[in-house]
Write a structure and sequence with these properties.
Blueprint lengths: L3 E9 L5 H17 L3 E2 L3 E12 L2 E13 L1 H13 L3 E8 L3
């Protein structure tokens, strides 16, 4: 198995303040490094309007993280993100050429 490049985007609850959002993001960054992956500095897009309502919410805090890891980590990351009630939506894309 070899590592691949990925881009994770998640939309967090709009009620989270900046500190809460950073703390939430750091949990996932910790998981990436614990599993032997590496990541670039997270890109916080801030609070934006959603294209459509999700779970009664019309806005969300967007965060994008580019990382390199084994494919199994992406599956685990997706699983863990989906368990968190503060995460409204996730998307992980493989960015290899």
């Amino acid at each position: 198995m070899s590592a691949h490049k990925y881009e994770l985007m998640f939309i967090a609850d709009p009620e989270l303040d900046e500190r809460g959002l950073k703390k939430l993001t750091e949990q996932y960054l910790e998981l990436i490094t614990k599993e032997g992956g590496s990541y670039d500095e997270p890109d916080y897009w801030g609070r934006r309007k959603l294209a459509y309502e999700i779970a009664g919410k019309t806005e969300g805090n967007y965060v994008v993280v580019r990382y390199t890891a084994e494919p199994a980590l992406s599956a685990e990351l997706d699983r863990v993100l989906n368990l968190n009630e503060s995460v409204v939506r996730t998307k992980i894309l493989r960015k290899d050429a």
